[in-house]
């Protein structure tokens, strides 16, 4: 029903999504907090940059990443500690691409949740002697659970389904950069519709179940709508 | 021991020019219309909003601009009760209270005292969203007390409650004000709360603090807006002397005078505060003959002033206390009341506060 190559692609896809989502939560949550609470000139610029992947063709994003992360790219020096040699066509490159590509899907719901909480409960916590970091972890994060769960799910699902960016910067290396969406594309190219059906169907069911669970769980979570 | 502050700030049309002194063991009421800057002043005291100025509690500076000193809210030992309670919705009542005790290291004894004081025992396991408005406010007050504050700030804590919840929570507030040994600043625009809870009054108008003084004085000063409100009243102190069971009357002692009021609960000898509305006091120059009015007290006119059109206000001294009387302009023409004149005040009704 599902052969070794497809299975490898599936494992790789979920590995990529899990790692990317973890990084996205670690980076995206403080970024969302900052965007929700800071008032500064040029905030719209930052928000537009974060939101770019929503509208930019993935190939365009992938192309720039390919150029930037390549062996002689302008950002290659950033990657020296990782062994150098550029990140194009590597799993690490995919992770970086995914994180940038899915950033708005995590940041926007989280930022909305933080904005919805507002300053009021945080002010109340301050009068109860909670320091800023204390307030963030004991009030903001628990009250923003809905936004965080939604953001994490969308980020995860979006990474699982990504195609264009992966193709541009990761290529099609089995076991290294060949994810499910690429595998499906390969099957269709090779006219293996049966195998394409299995993988596509599996992704469809997975995506539906994931979203269903999120909506069902979110209704019970704290955090005003 | 007191909270002292001086703030000024001007942003567009909004001006804050405020001076405040709140002594310990007293409730200082910031009184004024909605939008006059009372809450802003309170937030400045708490460090939640920033205005230029100074502020210190018991001699320790919280804000001193010249010294570039500003203590952030979480390092000020204060309790702040917001109008909208601001309970943490994701926590139970008990967890809301624990949020305070964990950070203030309040012990079990304080916990028990506060829970008992505000009657929270039956509510502890509930979650915040299941509480009624009055219950939420009681939890909010308890939570701020468990932060072991050295000053308690209350920002219109009853304003968003219906009449029944207000009536239910007022006794808790009265116990609180009687038992707490710290300065309390209470913001309100309700004359009812002012009279029931206040000791000191600071009048505010359009961002400025106008006058400050003891409640009894401020209520009866004819040059201040309080005496000219529709519900203008004076507050007098009396003592329970006894009661007449058959007639359901309590007898109160007011200096050498006696007052008879519908039966009240306090024990003999207990001091009580009475609110007497200006419109419930009529004046007569001769001792009235047979009348249904129970309390007719000899008084001396201290001052008279025009009130709303057709109305006149008279400030009276009875024993060593002050009473207000609102009479018609026509009556004033008939009686020609002058400072120093002896009159009889007929008090139609009094309310215990």
Automatic annotation (TrEMBL), chain B:
The keyword Nucleotide-binding applies. One of its GO terms (molecular function) is ABC-type transporter activity. It comes from the Bacteria. Residues 1-231 form the ABC transporter domain. InterPro entries: AAA+_ATPase (IPR003593), ABC_transporter-like_ATP-bd (IPR003439), ABC_transporter-like_CS (IPR017871), Mo/tungstate-bd_C_term_dom (IPR008995), ModC_ABC_ATP-bd (IPR011868), Molybdenum_import_ModC (IPR050334), Mop_domain (IPR004606), P-loop_NTPase (IPR027417). Pfam families: ABC_tran, TOBE. Keywords: ATP-binding, Cell inner membrane, Cell membrane, Membrane, Molybdenum, Nucleotide-binding, Translocase, Transport. GO terms for cellular component: membrane. Residues 290-353 form the Mop domain. PANTHER family: ABC TRANSPORTER I FAMILY MEMBER 10 (PTHR43514), MOLYBDENUM IMPORT ATP-BINDING PROTEIN MODC 2 (PTHR43514:SF10). This is Molybdenum import ATP-binding protein.
